[in-house]
């Protein structure tokens, strides 16, 4: 067997795979944040709670209704997306004329409510969610062992991210969306229902978070706090990448996941703060973010 | 007391003739009187907790209400100072005044470093950057050798003030805490009503215009950030001595959220609002302590209600009724 810098390849590639998995979640979540921020001009603090809600709804479907993983992957984003639409219509839409900070505070409050309710109901010990039988087992790639499910998570999130990129950058609907991000009044004057577009965009962003939650359910235990710490890291990812570019959000998400994985190999003590340190450096060197437009 | 306040405000340059408005002086005297009576009516430790959090919220409000900067990571300075002062008192054997001072110095340094980086971004990004830095402090506190991990630093000695006055009894400690709180509040009041505070207000209202008037707005923003972090540190360091404990709760993001909530309930941009907000939240936590995670739910609901219907806060509404800034 060969060794790289004294690190056995199993350990190196194992951590890189973990980093890639984390990166998949960073990418989907920061993509959702960026899409929502583009049109609504608020930072959706509830995003972590909605990701957690996705995992919980998948668990509930399985436990109470016997609906399995593959259906959950379809149903959960729709269900949680609809709750997002209701939240946008009832609450968030009342704040558009105010300072953006109120949107942040409102969604923070909502996150507290969702987390608190689920913590009361299910405790914080975490609920197991089995890997679907089709994806059990793994492949021996020679230099490392690749569990099938982890490979699937990376592929699925790549597909979803690139699909979102395609819709926003290459289709007519996406063109409306980008136009409304630049100038909602003008787009409205062309007869396009901008408020409805805003509502659906929020619903879509939330659905992305819920989708990530279902993907995460078999890897991490389903527990009410799973979104809270993750969302702060995702905020740092968003600051590093800047929210101006969809592709930028995806690349930054995966890239930072990999870098975090590498720190786990070479300097494990620093792995939990690696992304924050990178954020500090980016703020020093390029304050608008790697892909950001001028602040 | 009144005389002391008036001489202090007399230094304030152009506003010297106005001095402190009578109703503000009355509120300060009222606070002093209430503070002196409170330990005889209520459990002193409870009142000390309210005072620590009130100072924390006032320091936070200096940044949000007057600088217009929403920091979502003020727990870093509060909790960081708590850890340093607890460590100084317990391991280094510092007397309480020096322990608190070392906590304050630590939070000032932390505030300078994080503040200098955070003010490079505006608005929502600023909130996210401060939150991320605070999370870094949290992870550091979780792993660092001297913080005691999940246990925190327990059984911190209260010691003797200036080497003579024992703070073992809650009663004697209470008056020290009251003095720290009133001193901190007067300082914040002074900052807000100084020419520096006026420039801050200008930056909050219209930063490009303040720049065009020749103000180096970034310097002002950094200065108010450091002041706010330092005063938050004063509150945290005092809290560590009072409860003889510094723990992960103090640096957790939910602490940052709580101080935002206190300020929001009391009234952003009012001098006395955060005190009311802190009293409300601490009292609520005290009475609902047995309800577990429902406290989080209730706090979340208050957040939502305040943002949607009650953005002025308690003191903000009072000020509108009385037609006087409070």
Give the gist of this structure.
The complex is a heterodimer of chains A (295) and B (326). Helix content of chain A is 71%, strand content 2%.
Describe this structure in words.
- The complex is a heterodimer of chains A (295) and B (326).
- Chain A is mainly α and 295 residues long.
- Chain A has a domain at 19-100 and 143-226.
- Chain A is built from 11 helices and 2 strands.
- A two-stranded antiparallel ribbon of chain A has the order 1-2.
- In chain A, helix 2 (47-65) packs across helix 3.
- Chain A is globular.
- Chain A starts with 8 loop residues before the first helix and ends in a 10-residue tail after the last helix.
- Chain B has 326 residues and is mostly helical.
- Chain B has one domain: ABC transporter involved in vitamin B12 uptake, BtuC, CATH 1.10.3470.
- Chain B is 73% helix and 1% strand.
- A two-stranded antiparallel sheet of chain B has the order 1-2.
- In chain B, helix 3 (44-66) packs parallel to helix 7, helix 4 runs antiparallel to helix 5 (96-118) and helix 12 (253-266) packs parallel to helix 15 (313-322).
- The longest helix of chain B is centred in the C-terminal third of the chain and has 27 residues, at 217-243.
- Chain B starts with a helix and ends with a helix.
- The A-B interface holds A 37, 42-43, 91, 94-95, 98, 100-102, 104-106, 108-117, 119-120, 228-229, 232-233, 235-236, 238-239, 269, 272-273, 275-277, 279-280, 283-284, 287, 295 and B 70, 72, 117-118, 120-125, 127-129, 131-133, 135-136, 139-140, 142-143, 253, 257, 260, 264, 292-297, 299-304, 306-308, 311.
Oligomer: heterodimer
Order of helices and strands of chain A: HHHHEEHHHHHHH
Q: How many strands in all of chain B?
A: 2
Portion of residues in beta strands of chain A equals: under 5%
CATH class type of chain B = Mainly Alpha
Strand order of the largest sheet of chain B: 1-2
Q: Indicate the overall shape of chain A.
A: globular
Strands in their spatial order, largest beta sheet of chain A: 1-2
**Measured on Cα atoms, how large is the radius of gyration of chain A?**
19 Å
Structural class of chain A: mainly alpha
Sheet bearing the most strands of chain B, described? 2 strands, antiparallel
Mean pLDDT of chain A: 88
CATH architecture heading of chain B: Orthogonal Bundle
Terminal CA distance of chain A reads: 49 Å
Percent helix of chain A: over 70%
Low-confidence stretches of chain A: none
**Number of alpha- plus pi-helical segments of chain A:** 11
């Amino acid at each position: 067997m060969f060794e790289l810098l004294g690190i056995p390849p199993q350990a190196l590639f194992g951590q890189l795979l973990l980093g890639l998995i984390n990166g998949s979640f960073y990418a989907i979540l920061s993509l959702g944040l960026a899409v929502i921020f583009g049109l609504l001009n608020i930072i959706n603090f509830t995003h972590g709670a909605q990701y957690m809600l996705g995992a919980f709804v998948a668990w509930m479907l399985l436990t109470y209704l016997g609906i399995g993983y593959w259906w959950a992957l379809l149903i959960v984003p729709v269900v949680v997306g609809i709750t997002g639409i209701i939240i946008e219509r009832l609450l968030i839409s009342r704040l558009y004329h105010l300072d953006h900070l109120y949107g942040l505070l409102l969604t923070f409050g909502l996150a507290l409510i969702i987390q608190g309710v689920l913590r009361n109901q299910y405790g914080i010990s975490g609920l197991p969610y089995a890997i679907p039988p089709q994806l059990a087992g793994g492949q021996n790639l020679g230099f490392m062992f690749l569990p099938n499910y982890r490979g699937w998570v990376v592929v699925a999130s790549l597909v979803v991210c690139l699909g979102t990129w395609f819709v926003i950058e290459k289709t007519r609907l996406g063109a409306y969306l980008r136009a409304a991000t630049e100038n909602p009044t003008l787009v409205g004057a062309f007869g396009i229902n901008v408020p409805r577009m805003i509502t659906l965009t929020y619903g879509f962003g939330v659905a992305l978070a819920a989708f990530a939650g279902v993907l995460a359910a078999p890897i991490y235990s389903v527990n009410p706090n799973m979104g809270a710490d993750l969302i702060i890291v995702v905020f740092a990812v968003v600051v590093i990448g800047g929210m101006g570019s969809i592709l930028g959000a995806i690349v930054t998400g995966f890239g930072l996941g990999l870098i975090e994985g590498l720190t786990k190999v070479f300097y494990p003590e620093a792995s939990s703060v690696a992304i924050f340190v990178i954020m500090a450096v980016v703020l020093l060197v390029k304050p608008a973010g790697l892909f950001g437009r001028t602040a | 007391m009144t005389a002391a306040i008036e001489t202090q405000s007399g230094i304030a340059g152009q506003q010297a003739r106005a001095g402190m408005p009578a109703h503000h002086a009355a509120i300060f005297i009222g606070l002093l009187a209430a503070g002196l009576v409170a330990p005889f009516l209520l459990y002193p430790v409870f009142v000390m907790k309210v005072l620590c959090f009130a100072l924390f919220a006032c320091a936070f409000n200096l940044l949000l209400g007057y600088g217009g900067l929403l920091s979502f990571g003020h727990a870093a300075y509060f909790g960081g100072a708590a850890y340093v002062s607890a460590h100084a008192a317990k391991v280094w054997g510092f007397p309480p005044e020096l322990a608190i001072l070392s906590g304050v110095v630590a939070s000032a340094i932390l505030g300078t470093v994080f503040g200098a980086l955070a003010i490079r971004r505006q608005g929502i990004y600023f909130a996210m950057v401060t939150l991320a830095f605070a999370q870094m402090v949290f992870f550091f506190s979780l792993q660092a050798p001297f913080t005691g991990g999940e246990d925190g630093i327990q059984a911190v000695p209260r010691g003797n003030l200036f080497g003579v006055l024992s703070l073992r009894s809650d009663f004697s400690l209470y008056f020290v805490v009251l003095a720290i709180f009133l001193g901190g509040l007067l300082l914040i009041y002074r900052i807000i009503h100084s020419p520096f505070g006026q420039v801050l207000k200008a930056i909050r209202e219209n930063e490009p215009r303040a720049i065009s008037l020749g103000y180096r707005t970034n310097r002002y923003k950094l200065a108010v950030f450091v002041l706010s972090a330092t005063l938050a540190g004063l509150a945290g360091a005092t809290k560590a001595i009072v409860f003889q404990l510094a723990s992960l709760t103090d640096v957790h993001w939910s602490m940052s959220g709580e101080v935002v909530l206190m300020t929001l309930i009391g009234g952003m941009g009012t001098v006395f609002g955060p005190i009311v907000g802190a009293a409300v939240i601490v009292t609520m936590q005290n009475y609902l302590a047995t309800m577990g995670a429902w406290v989080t739910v209730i706090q979340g609901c208050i957040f939502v209600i305040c943002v949607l219907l009650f953005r002025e806060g308690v003191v903000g509404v009072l000020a509108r009724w009385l037609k006087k800034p409070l």
